[in-house]
């Protein structure tokens, strides 16, 4: 799938001279967390996201730094922060170095951009103009409606086993001995030693995605754990308490 298949085409945009409060209202009214900033010709000039608006002097949330670098004027960051927290229009607070994609960009490429560039959305550009936007939510929506692979009818256990082993061979860290993979009535049975539960999870996910596989049974062992014992780190929630005024 490509950007053009999942992108939101009704893109809410703003002009570089749009007031900051109007940007906030646009985000709220249209339930979006980012706005492409375009000029009169529709050309992309920058992006404003909710992350650009929460450090504001009006809210008392602006950054306050006092490092040796900015005391001696060796760092421009305090000046940049000042403009970001007190700028009145979009051009003052927008991110000017914007990553954009073409309509034909694959979802794999977009997902990699999200991960490597630490961004949550990308505008889609065609003929110099913004024609859409792809967000993480669009990728999740695409996953929700993606047609599941139809299970192949009539696949024998030996054929299913061959498909599972072929998939295991593609894994970058290697795969168990072929003799440790058994398929009975469509159920994959995995035997032998595995170094970690993470690799077990990967092998399970790879197996159950194969057409014709009806289940997965773990018979593996680890030198530091028992067969079939799944160890998961407990969930951890960090609650940040409000600071008392000094």
Summarize the structure.
The chain has helices spanning 3-6, 20-30, 68-71, 77-86, 90-93, 107-117, 136-145, 157-169, 197-208, and strands at residues 34-38, 44-49, 121-126, 129-135, 181-184, 187-193, 215-221.
How does this model look, in words?
The chain is α+β, with helices and mostly antiparallel strands. Mean pLDDT is 80; it is low at 226-233. It folds into two domains: 3-145, Roll (CBS-domain); 157-221, Histidine-containing Protein, Chain: A. The chain is built from nine helices and seven strands. Strand 3 and strand 4 form a beta hairpin.
Total domains, how many?
A: 2
Rg from Cα: 26 Å
The strand line-up of the biggest sheet is 5-6-7
Helix fraction by DSSP (H/I, runs of at least 4): 25-40%
Distance between the termini: 55 Å
Give me the CATH architecture of the largest domain, please.
Answer: Roll
Uncertain stretches: 226-233
Under the CATH scheme, which class of the largest domain?
A: Alpha Beta
Give the overall pLDDT as a whole number.
80
CATH topology of the largest domain: the name is CBS-domain
Proportion of strand residues: 15-25%
Counting copies of identical and different chains, the oligomeric state is single chain
Q: Number of helical segments?
A: 9
CATH homology superfamily of the largest domain:
CBS-domain
Order of helices and strands: HHEEHHHHEEHHEEHE
| Gross geometry | elongated
| SSE class | alpha+beta
Largest sheet: 3 strands, mixed
Kindly state the number of beta strands: 7
């Amino acid at each position: 799938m490509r950007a053009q298949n999942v992108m939101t085409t009704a893109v809410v945009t703003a002009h570089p001279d749009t007031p900051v409060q109007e940007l906030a209202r646009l985000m709220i009214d249209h339930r979006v967390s980012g706005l492409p900033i375009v000029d009169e010709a529709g050309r992309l000039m920058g992006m404003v996201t909710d992350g650009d608006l929460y450090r504001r002097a009006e809210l008392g949330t602006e950054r306050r730094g006092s490092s040796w670098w900015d005391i001696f004027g060796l760092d421009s960051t305090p000046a940049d922060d000042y403009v970001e927290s007190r700028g009145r229009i979009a051009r003052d607070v927008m991110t000017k170095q914007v990553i954009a994609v073409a309509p034909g960009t694959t979802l794999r490429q977009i997902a990699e951009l999200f991960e490597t560039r630490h961004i949550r959305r990308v505008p889609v550009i065609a003929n110099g103009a913004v024609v859409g936007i792809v967000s993480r939510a669009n990728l999740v929506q695409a996953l929700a409606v993606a047609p599941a692979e139809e299970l192949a009818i009539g696949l024998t256990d030996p054929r299913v086993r061959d498909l599972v082993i072929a998939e295991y061979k593609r894994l970058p860290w290697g795969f168990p001995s072929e003799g440790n993979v058994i398929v009975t009535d469509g159920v994959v049975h995995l035997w032998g030693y595995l170094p970690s539960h993470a690799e077990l999870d990967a092998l399970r996910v790879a197996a159950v995605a194969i057409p014709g596989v009806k289940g997965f049974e773990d018979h593996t062992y680890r030198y530091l754990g028992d067969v079939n014992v799944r160890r998961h780190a407990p969930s951890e929630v960090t609650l940040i308490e409000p600071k008392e005024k000094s």
